[in-house]
Amino acid sequence: MSDRDGNSFGWFLAGLGLGAVVGVLYAPRSGSGTRDALPARAEEGRDYMRSRAREAREQASGWVDRGRDVVNQQKDQFRAAYEAGRQAYQEATTETGAPKNL
Q: How far apart are CA 40 and CA 48, in angstroms?
């Protein structure tokens, strides 16, 4: 069993070495080119995230404004309905001669 474990470890090391060789041969840039490209890509990512955050804030602000408009519209409708009901009550009590308690 220990012979089999040693053989598996040997194959693992061979695969690791082969992967490293293939990675070096097929790398799109040299090491210095990759090191130069990393900060530029990080800056691009940072700018992208900032723009997406700004867009999200603007969209959320729009939703808040629309929600505020809907709430104000509902308040106005409620007030109009309340006033109409109050006036209808006053007219009904005035016609019947019943005392008003408002």
A: 12
As a dihedral over the C-alpha atoms of residue 22, residue 28, residue 30, residue 35, rounded to 10 degrees, the angle is: -120
Dihedrals phi, psi of 62, to nearest 5 degrees = -60, -40
Q: pTM here?
A: 0.47
* Residue 100 near residue 93, CB atoms below 8 Å: yes
**Which residue has better confidence, 25 or 78?**
78
Q: How far apart are CA 21 and CA 26, in angstroms?
A: 9
Supply the DSSP symbol for 97. Answer: T
Q: What is the pLDDT of residues 84-94, one digit of tens each?
A: 999 999 988 88
Segment holding 98, helix H or strand E: none
